[in-house]
Amino acid sequence: MSRAGATDLHTHSLRSDGAFAPAEVVRMAAAGGVAVMALSDHDTLDGVAEAEAAARPLGIRIVPATELNTESEWGDVHVLGYFLDPADAKLEERLRWLRENRGRRIELMVERLSELGHAVSLERVREIAQGGALGRPHLAQALFEAGHVTSYDDAFLTLISKDSPAYVSRVGLTPLEAVELVRAHGGVPSLAHPRTVIGLEDRLPLLVEAGLGGIECYYVSKDPDIHHGPERTAHFLALAERYTLVPTGGSDFHGRGEHGAPLGGVPVPPGTIAALEARR
Length: 280
Ligand SMILES: [Zn+2]
Ligand SMILES: [Zn+2]
Hints:
The chain is an alpha/beta fold. It has ten helices and seven strands. A seven-stranded mixed sheet has the order 1-2-3-4-5-6-7. Helix 4 crosses helix 5. It is globular. The protein binds zinc ion (2 copies). The site of one zinc ion (ZN) has 5 residues, from loops.
């Protein structure tokens, strides 16, 4: 359920693995009552200018952001970086490196899938990504279209899961490097969907020491392991207080219905963005 004046600090467009153009995401957010929206595409700030242009006449504030995936034994550690500058050339160089790694990884996975008898064309995967960074969601869509799996989710569960022979692991930033990268470029890092981190209570002090400024306390997911009900939200709010982190939150909207909330659908306290800004 969306409310007027809502804050949504976690959204994706087709500049990474979302289904809609940045301007469309903004229009949908406006229709859902969102007043402050962070566009947080993976490894890129490319969509920010388009989102800002669409947001201006609608009176919506866009917070430039990105979500950095990381590589470690810590599970899926995703770091949201807020208030980054799309014109920061040094940052863009690092983000490009991350995107190119991801692209090569998908190329390798397409080759392995073909060897395993599940051929999809790299061209089609690129088309699905519409110029954005190639990721496993695009590959899953292509596998579904080619009839190798019965559904998008099925592709993730079988052919391209971590245990699949077609899986290629990524090369990239460690969680601490991701936090440090955001800080080094004047941004405020927040830990996304903390349930995906293995051994969070042991890792959190290290992330805080590296410069973590927030933790995503308000998060919903169709995956019950990752979803925050009231008890989990309270648990993460207590952690945020212990480490003086700003509680952040958002829909993690991709536009394919695979996540738990529509734009603006996760209640985030209105003072959140000001609290984050104070941590710059
Ligand atoms: Zn994420
Ligand atoms: Zn996300």
